[in-house]
Amino acid sequence: MNLGLWTEPKAKNSENGTKNIDGLKITLDPGDESYDLIQKQLGLVGDSSWLKHEPMLVVGLYFGRGGKGQKFCHDVWGIIEPERQTGRLRGLYKPFSSTRKSLCIRGWKNGFCGLSELSGDRVFICEGEKDFLALRATGIWDSGLFATTASIGLSLEVLYALEGRHVTICAQADRQGIYAAKKWAEELTDFGVDNLEILIPKIEGEDWADIMNGNQYGELHNFIGAFNTHSVQELLALNPSDFQEAKKENKPRFSPKWDREFTQKLKDVCWEKNLPYVLRSTTPFLEALGLEKSKVNRNKISRHLRYCLTKKKDLD
């Protein structure tokens, strides 16, 4: 008999709108709000429907463990390759913590993500899932890869995949970014990939999400002129120590303004109808509140109930 509040999610059929991958409960048809929130994190504006066509993008619930082994459940988005067990996840409504902005699924390996979707002659490689989506939003390249950690090298699998293509290394303008770009350029040239160029933001400390900030999908008015193009020789002549350390991200909240009145209504319903904070079905809450049984309302109740559960000490 399990008396705990947290249990591993069981695999479900795709007919119910979800599928599970190693503790990640993926929503197969996320609402438009999810894409809007992801685009907000990228700093892009306008219509976010282009994200629906990114094959590696997932939205859902991640059941993981913290550094001390504690279990947690978090709303996430991510860029993943399940068949290669690589990728990164980020918080959808808020970061994982004040120090952790993204993470790898437990048991998966670090490496380059995007190999299964690599196509076309013009490809880019970059650092991180945010830069990957920001560069995809330019529409310049046919496809791309991103490193799940800056210090990772190019495996033989990746080198063979990049052979014969025009490769653009999109480096971040910080110490770790320049070090990674030099490592990748050396490995590519040693392997014989000679159709290679390097882009580095002009402003030190910037990444590609910074450059695309304020743009719509396919717009390049913030992009063109915001970087310098380097040859391999020019890149290798750079000293990473001359660049600043990678900047630390603030801890923003990505969700819209929290509806505290709705949270209070849920608390009252739980008390009056003797409904559990641990969500088994949203239907009793929808009926008690007189709300339409729509996907948007179900998701809203789920979010607010998780908030009530994590703040239960404040409810008594």
CATH architecture of the largest domain: 3-Layer(aba) Sandwich
Helical segment count: 9
Give the CA-CA distance, first to last residue. Answer: 27 Å
Backbone shape: elongated
The portion of residues forming beta strands comes to 15-25%
Structural class: alpha+beta
Tell me roughly what share of residues is in helical segments: 25-40%
Structural notes for this entry:
The structure is a single chain. By secondary structure, the chain is of the alpha+beta class. The protein is built from 9 helices and 12 strands. It folds into 2 domains: 229 residues, Dna Topoisomerase Vi A Subunit, Chain: A, domain 2 (3-Layer(aba) Sandwich), CATH 3.40.1360; 55 residues. Helix content is 28%, strand content 20%. The protein has a 6-stranded antiparallel β-sheet with strand order 1-2-3-4-5-6, with no helix packed on it. The longest helix has 17 residues. It is elongated, with a radius of gyration of 22 Å. The protein starts with 17 loop residues before the first strand and ends in a 6-residue tail after the last helix. The C terminus is likely disordered.
Describe the secondary-structure layout.
Layout: E1 18-21, E2 24-27, H1 32-42, E3 57-65, E4 71-81, E5 86-91, E6 102-103, E7 112-113, E8 122-127, H2 129-136, E9 143-147, H3 156-162, E10 166-170, H4 175-191, E11 196-201, H5 208-212, E12 227-230, H6 232-236, H7 260-273, H8 283-289, H9 295-310
Parallel strand pairs: 8-9, 8-10, 10-11
Antiparallel strand pairs: 1-2, 2-3, 3-4, 4-5, 5-6, 7-9, 11-12
